[in-house]
Each structure stands twice: as structure tokens, then as C-alpha cells.
From TrEMBL:
Keywords: Cytoplasm, Endonuclease, Hydrolase, Magnesium, Metal-binding, mRNA processing, Nuclease, RNA-binding, rRNA processing, rRNA-binding, tRNA processing. Residues 4-127 form the RNase III domain. It is found in: Cytoplasm. It catalyses: Endonucleolytic cleavage to 5'-phosphomonoester. NCBIfam families: RNaseIII. Its EC number is 3.1.26.3. It comes from the Bacteria. This is Ribonuclease 3. Mg(2+) binds at E40, D113, E116. It is an enzyme of class 3 (hydrolase). The active site is at D44, E116.
Amino acid sequence: MSDYTKLEKCLGYQFKDKNLIIEALTHKSFKKPYNNERLEFLGDAVLNLIVGEYLFKKFPKSNEGELSKIRASLVNETGFTKLANEIKLGEYIFISTAEERNKGRSKASILSDAFEAIMGAVYLESGLETLKPIILKLLEESYDKINLDVLFSDYKTALQEITQAQFGSIPEYKIEGSYGPDHKKEFEVSIWIDGQTYGTAKGKSKKLAQQAVAKIAIKKLKGSK
């Protein structure tokens, strides 16, 4: 049996049932009678709840729309991959030889799913109150600040990494126009990658519009793979 001591130390949690951690780390490509998809499903639901409660308490003056945006910036593939890398989860995942050759250990989809599964496994074994401090500690260690602008900036950073890898270039943002009175102005920004446009988005500032259109471009690029 593999040694999960380092991983458990990073989590600050020791599994009583080692079969549970094995299941959580087993990708469907590994061809076992079990995989981590059910635990991933559970983990996703629990993470939404814990992060939602955390933001509710952290930002007492934020409205539902703002809280939803911040949570969406954290509870997604990019966010979970960031947390998975914080605990070096890629080193422990069971994947097929083909996935190994395709650099599966560093794939965002595989890392994100395994992270959700591990969190689902902790919840299943020890409940919400044990899992909550593990998640919150990882969040605070992974993000210098948690607020709307800082988290949105991850979309631009993530997109730049994708475009540099795929096209060898960085995205170009163009302001297409601004609308409304000065106190309630809205900006429209388009995004161009390698000579092609990947969408437009609006925001209350140029910065927010850029983040919104970067998110659209990420979805399009991932969908075209």
C-alpha cells in the first residue's frame, strides 16, 4: 500500500479508512472496479456549502450577486487545481499509463476532480466540522487576499498561461465603448487571441470587463480542445 503520510500531513488529517483515500485518488482511467467520481460529486456539494458560509461571514456587507461571483471564482476547476497543487496532490493520484504519458498528473481536470474527491472523503468519514478548518486553511494559504477584484484577476492570469502554451502569445484587450452617465458607467471590452476575437463582455470598470471577457475566452478555448 502507498504511503499517504505526507499528503495527510499537508491536509492536517489522518484517514482512519485507507480504502477511502485510495478511492478518492483513483482516476477513472486507472481501470479499477471503483473510481473517485462519486466522492467528487459529494465533495463538490460540500465545498460549495463551506465556501459559501465562509464568504457569507467574511463579507457581511456584500450582496447575493457579489457573494455568488466570489464563490464562483473559488469553486471551479482553476480554483480547485490551485488548492490541489498546494498539497501536491498530483504526486498521489492513480492514473493510467496513457494519462501518465499525457501529463495527467498536472491536468487541471484530473487535479480538480481528485481534490473534490479527497474533500468528499474527509466529509464522509469525519463530517463538516472536521472538514471546514482544512478547507479554510488551504484557502487562506493559497490566496493572499480574497475579494472580488483579486479573485477575478485569476481569470486573466489563467488565460495568459493557456494562450502562451497554445499560441505563444498573450491576449489583447480592446475597449469597444463605454455607456451611461459617469457615476454609473459601463465598459465593453473585446478579447483578441492570435488575431481572432473570442468574445466581448461588459463591466462597471475596464478591469472588471477584462476579467469577465477573459472568463468567456477560457471557456471557449477549453471547449475547443
